[in-house]
Amino acid sequence: MGEIIVEDDGLPCSEVGAWAEDKYTLVGLYDRLFSTGMKKKWPTRVYIDLYAGPGFVRIRGTGRMLMGSPLLALGVPDPFDKYIFCESDPELLGALQSRVRRYSPTAKATFICGDCNEKIEEICANIPVSSPGRGELTYCFLDPFDISIKFSTLRRLSSRFIDFLILLALHVDANRNVEHYFNSRNSKVDEFLDLSDWRERWKIAKSRRARFPRFLAEEYSGQMQKLEYLPQSWDRMKQVRSDEKNLPLYHLALFSRHPLAYKYWDEVLKYSSDQQNFEF
Question: How far is 101 from 106, CA to CA, in rounded Å?
């Protein structure tokens, strides 16, 4: 893996917990495996980051700076042919644009300001359209702070050849707010799963001693299967834990229609399990 630690450049950045270093290491590894592995299989490879952020993040309470997901994707040995970055905060998006110009001045990048759920048509319009003999494969990374990503957004993107790597906020958001979300006036989980009857399904699962995070993960995987994605089991969703109390926060989940992507994902899981020096 390449180095993800960077020097402060004075531009705005986001603050994250120390656990983020492990997350970015794993995401960066998958970026490399995907971009190089698919280079000869697809004439055009597209990278989308729906919660792009400013490109740099700072470990909370320290001066330690890390390269965020957009710059990790730009820095792969075999760069993508097109990059699409969406970020809702104009100041953070401006910082990302400056960093992209500095780190990858020749990259073909599009920057979209706004909520990705609301900007989905603009995002889709910027994905290159296939022509005879020139297909495109898209890899989309989603790193939301909560379960705000609407399933309808993924459904819209899934009309193309696209793989998803998603940080599911199953503990830090969903599990902490389950009673709040269970209220019929709250539609957040309804939109996250695109299931209006999830409350009834949860009652049944809860009676069988199911845990809410796993229930959501399995329902999510089921919804992705309806979009013709291969099933992703709970044990293959990489858990990200808090560095302070070692509590679970998120799960990184890959969804693809082709088994080769899961082969790459298994390499990432293997790396994260034994922390071996991975030779690409």
Answer: 8
- Greatest alpha-carbon pair distance for the chain in Å reads 56
User: What amino acid is encoded at 239 in this protein?
Assistant: Q
pTM of the predicted model as reported, rounded to 2 decimal places: 0.94
* Domain architecture of the chain: domains with CATH: 5-176+229-272 (3.40.50.150)
What does the pLDDT read at residue 194?
Answer: 97
pLDDT per residue as tens digits for the range 51-96: 999 999 999 988 899 999 999 999 999 999 999 999 999 999 999 9
Q: Which residues pair with 83 in a beta bridge?
A: 47, 109
Q: What is the model's pLDDT at position 46?
A: 97
Please check whether residue 54 is in contact with residue 11, taking contact to mean a CB–CB distance below 8 angstroms.
Answer: yes
Tell me the two tokens of residue 256: 């693809």
Rounded to 5 degrees, φ, ψ at 185 are -80, -10
pLDDT at 132 over 60: no
Is the separation of the CB atoms in 151 and 193 below 8 Å?
A: yes
31 contacts: CB under 8 Å, gap ≥ 6: 47, 72, 73, 76, 139
| φ/ψ of residue 162, rounded to 5 | -145, 135
> Sign of the C-alpha dihedral, residues 97, 99, 100, 101?
positive
- The helix or strand, by DSSP H or E, that contains position 240, with its residue range, turns out to be strand 238-241
